Amino acid sequence: MTAPLFNGREPFFLAADKVQVKYEMLRAHVVDGLTATSVAEQHGYSRAAFYLILDAFEEAGMHGLLDERRGRRGPVKLTPEVLQFLSSADPTLSGARLAAQIEERFGLSLHRRTVERARR
Q: Which Pfam families match (predicted)?
């Protein structure tokens, strides 16, 4: 990163703070009038990434600058009905047996470990 604010002389500007780097990159473009290509390069991003960051900021404000977890946010097949069934099931039943019962009752094929984790 070659942006002047993040050269280490100012303790407030931390190159490790990705949100601050992204914000200052956008500010340099909008306020200082620098090109998207130059500010992206100075702040360690590609031009394409600059536009993704700009869109995220325009859509969600500062929250849009946060890095979010990628991928799913939990088991897809574990519906509230299945979880209710598991909570009322006999605690002595194995995960494999419960998975078989879930398949019979709900038509869902779950691995025994998925069932065991959901019961915790």
A: HTH_29
